[in-house]
Every structure is written in structure tokens, then in C-alpha cells.
Write a structure and sequence with these properties.
Heat Shock Protein 90; 2 domains; alpha+beta; Actin, Chain A, domain 4; three-stranded antiparallel β-sheet; six-stranded mixed β-sheet
């Protein structure tokens, strides 16, 4: 709407102008709130990025480690896309590049030593819908390395007592979550076959925050869409309290686990 100097402006026109300004301000604010990628590559055949959250950016050794990992991921996908672009250009119809977006978000810091990160990959290379892959990373501040949860347990053998207990607890938590969502899980497909009592297939895990300083209240299991349900169900994030696996903890595990989750834990973040 253009208002010329000296013209009479009605209340409705004033309201319309104010509404337009507020809408534009909201759009600008939303754009500003979006974190800028730390690494970005854009060509005719690939649009890729890696983004770290503020907490990770403030931790230089961790940020460097994750950026190196992210850059390697982009380069691998860039090479694959370049090859396909050369041999099968029809897969990039109407000038559409393949999309690869990776984000890293810190979810907990236990005792100032163990930092849990959730890594989310958004991938679209054509087809009915994009894919979202969720994984986790456990960072040891002392050694400045990515580690596994093995040291927290007495044993972690495939199909051993520890991983069987974790698998059963995680599946029970997913089933409870489905019940909360009103999802009928009695179909012919057994969605839990892919959740196996092995460290690599039980699910991506992170340490849950606790009301006790320096402790973790348990494990959070993160499942990508399709992992334990149909694509329409989306992802699942479920919590297993440390008491559920207490008898399997090593002395190191007993040192870091304890207490309950904070009361303000957001649904979905567990």
C-alpha cells in the first residue's frame, strides 16, 4: 500500500500498514534466528551444509572435531552427487540439486566431562520424501575424543545381559510412547526387529541430564523415522532411567549415573 504525503489515511489503512510491518518484522526475526551454517557447499548438483549450535561452537576442540567430520561427510556426498550428475543428469531435473544438511546439537554435559551431541542429517535426492537420519556422539572433555558408552558398563558383549536389558527397556519405552500418541502397534510389521542387543544396533544413545549436579539420570534413545515405525510416525526419542540398568554399571558408570530428570524436561527431548 502506498500512502502519498498529505493524503487522508483511514483507520483501516493504518491497521493494514501496521499489520504489514509486523509481518515483515516477524519474517526478518525468523531469518535472523536461523543459525548460519559453519560449512556450506553449493553447486549445480549439491546444496550441502553443516551447522553447530552455540554451545558446541564455544568448545573449540569439540567444534574442530565435528567440523572435520562434517566436512568429510559433505565431500563424500559431493563426490557421489558429481558422479551421478555426470552419468544420470535426469536425476537432477529442473535444476534441482541434491540436498544434504547436517546439524549438531549439544543435549547434556555430565560432570563437565561427558558431552552428549545429537547429530541430525536431512537428505533429499528426489523421491516421495526426504530422509532424516539421527545419530549421537559422546565427547570426552579430558581425552578430547569421541567415545562410546562401553566404560560405563561391566560388559557390553553382543547379545549379552547388558545390551539385552538396554534393548528391552528401549523397546518398552518406544511402545509406551506410541500408546501416548494413539498409534496402534499391533500390525503385521515387527518394527522392533532392527533394534538388536548390540552396541551399534540398540539405538543411538545420549546421556540424560539429572537434577543431581555432575550426574546423568539415564539414557535417551534416539530413533530416526522408519527405525521403529512408519515414516508418518516420525522419529522417536525415549528415556530409560538409570535404575533400569543399574546392576550392569561399572564403577565408572556408578559415578556418573544418579538422580531424576529435571521436571522441566520437554516432551520429545526427554
Amino acid at each position: 500500500m502506498i500512502i502519498r504525503p498529505g493524503s487522508i489515511v483511514s483507520p483501516l489503512q493504518k491497521f493494514s500498514c501496521l499489520a504489514a510491518v509486523l509481518v515483515l518484522a516477524g519474517i526478518a526475526s525468523a531469518i535472523a534466528a536461523e543459525p548460519r551454517p559453519d560449512v556450506a557447499v553449493k553447486t549445480k548438483y549439491i546444496d550441502a551444509s553443516v551447522t553447530l549450535d552455540k554451545q558446541i561452537r564455544a568448545n573449540a576442540p569439540l567444534a574442530d572435531n565435528l567440523l572435520a567430520e562434517g566436512k568429510h561427510w559433505i565431500e563424500k556426498n559431493r563426490a557421489d552427487a558429481a558422479k551421478e550428475f555426470k552419468t544420470s543428469p535426469e536425476l537432477f531435473g529442473e535444476g534441482r540439486a541434491w540436498t544434504f544438511e547436517r546439524s549438531y546439537a549439544q543435549t547434556s554435559n555430565v560432570g563437565g566431562r561427558y558431552v552428549s551431541i545429537v547429530r541430525t542429517d536431512y537428505i533429499y535426492t528426489g523421491g516421495a520424501h526426504p530422509n532424516t537420519l539421527i545419530d549421537t556422539i559422546l565427547w570426552d572433555q579430558e581425552t578430547k575424543k569421541q567415545i562410546s558408552i562401553r566404560p560405563f558398563f561391566k560388559e557390553t558383549a553382543d547379545n549379552g545381559p547388558t545390551l539385552k536389558a538396554l534393548r528391552d527397556a528401549a523397546v518398552a519405552a518406544v511402545k509406551a510412547k506410541k500408546k501416548e500418541r494413539g498409534i496402534d502397534d499391533s500390525g503385521a510389521i515387527n518394527w522392533y526387529e532392527s533394534v538388536e542387543p548390540t552396541l551399534l544396533k540398540v539405538g543411538a544413545v545420549s546421556l540424560a541430564p539429572s537434577v543431581l549436579a555432575g550426574k546423568s539420570a539415564g539414557l535417551v534413545f534416539h530413533y530416526s523415522p522408519y527405525a521403529v515405525g512408519s515414516y508418518a510416525e516420525g522419529s522417536y526419542t525415549v528415556f530409560v532411567p538409570w535404575e533400569a540398568f543399574r546392576k550392569h554399571l561399572s564403577p565408572q558408570g556408578l559415578e556418573i549415573f544418579g538422580g531424576d530428570r529435571p521436571a522441566n524436561t520437554k516432551p520429545g527431548s526427554e
